[in-house]
Design a protein that fits this description.
The chain is α/β, with parallel strands linked by helices. It is built from 5 helices and 7 strands. The chain is elongated and about 180 Å long. InterPro entries: 5peptide_repeat (IPR001646), Pentapeptide-BTB/POZ_domain (IPR051082).
Length: 337
């Protein structure tokens, strides 16, 4: 019996050791499986991170590509716009050039036609310009006025010179009968037209005389109700003339004789007078706002008011109507009148 118990004990001991070994092997196997699972998890995490990074790279590449394509498109568009603008400017310049050439050709034809018609008119009736009756004079005046309206400034000057050479610019016809009455002679260089210093200048009432030039001339014509904006008067004698109700805005007068001229109602705003004689002239209602007077003699002028001095922008060495010499605008006061 003791032997039997000992054998049973040994078998039981052996069985426990076998069970322990099996349990140990099972634990090692479980640990290996856990390690495998951890490796798999880490691999999945790495794969996921790699995929995320790859997506970011792909997105950045796509974004950079879009930006490059946009910048390239903008450059191409800008280049196209610049080229288109250049083409438009070039086309406009060509159009303006062709238009100006056509205008020159058109104006030249108009002037030539007028000269031929004037020559034919005077030749047909075989009369001298001084002998024109009122009907022919009206015809010449109307044709002249229409033609002047269609010409540029250069050809207007040529037309006026044609009238001068034909002796149609004289003082025989007055007021509304004058050839240039109410005519558009803007831009005409009268100092290039009339080469006789003592020539009796015709009346030019109510004419458009903007941007005209009168230099080294002498005349006493009627220029009332005319427009002389931005005109140039230099070394001119217009004594005893009539320039009433004319507009002379932004014009320049230098070394000019205006003695006894009627300036009533004239507009001299922003004009410049330098070295001017205006003795005994009429200044009723004259506008002088922002005008400059330097070395101007107004002795004996009628209608000149203190307000006109105050409206000047500059004044120096001005002889006032009562003989007082105004050295600067600041010296102006009521007692000088």
């Amino acid at each position: 019996a003791a032997e039997l118990r000992r054998n049973d004990t040994e078998r039981a001991q052996k069985q426990r050791e076998e069970d322990k070994e099996i349990a140990r092997l099972q634990r090692e196997e479980d640990k290996k499986r856990e390690e495998d699972r951890e490796i798999a998890r880490q691999q999945r995490a790495d794969d996921k991170e790699n995929a995320r990074l790859q997506r970011e790279v792909d997105l950045k590449i796509a974004r950079d590509k879009r930006i490059q394509e946009y910048e390239l498109t903008e450059k191409e568009h800008s280049l196209y716009q610049s080229q288109r603008a250049h083409e438009i400017v070039f086309a406009q310049e060509n159009y303006i050039r062709e238009f100006m050439l056509e205008e020159i050709h058109y104006s030249g034809n108009i002037l030539l036609t007028y000269q031929r018609e004037l020559s034919a008119l005077l030749g047909e009736f075989q009369i001298k310009p001084d002998d024109l009756d009122r009907t022919l004079l009206f015809t010449v005046q109307m044709r002249t006025r229409t033609t002047l309206q269609l010409l540029d400034t250069t050809r207007r000057t040529i037309l006026v010179r044609t009238l001068f050479q034909a002796n149609l610019l004289n003082d025989k016809w007055k007021k509304h009968m004058a050839i240039l009455y109410n005519a558009n002679v803007s831009g005409v260089q009268f100092d290039q037209v009339i080469d006789r210093p003592s020539y009796k200048f015709p009346d030019i009432e109510r004419a458009d005389l903007r941007y005209t030039s009168f230099r080294s001339m002498s005349f006493g014509a009627r220029l009332d109700h005319s427009i002389f904006i931005q005109s140039d008067f230099a070394f001119v004698s217009m004594a005893d003339g009539n320039m009433s109700n004319g507009s002379f805005i932004d014009s320049v007068f230098e070394t000019t004789n205006f003695d006894r001229v009627d300036f009533s109602g004239a507009d001299f705003r922003r004009c410049t007078f330098r070295n001017i004689s205006m003795v005994n002239c009429s200044m009723f209602g004259v506008k002088l706002q922002e005008t400059k007077l330097f070395y101007v003699n107004l002795f004996g002028c009628m209608g000149f008011q203190i307000e006109q001095i105050y409206s000047l922008s500059a004044a120096n060495k001005v002889t006032l109507p009562n003989g007082t010499l105004l050295h600067s605008q600041e010296e102006t006061d009521d007692h000088i009148f």
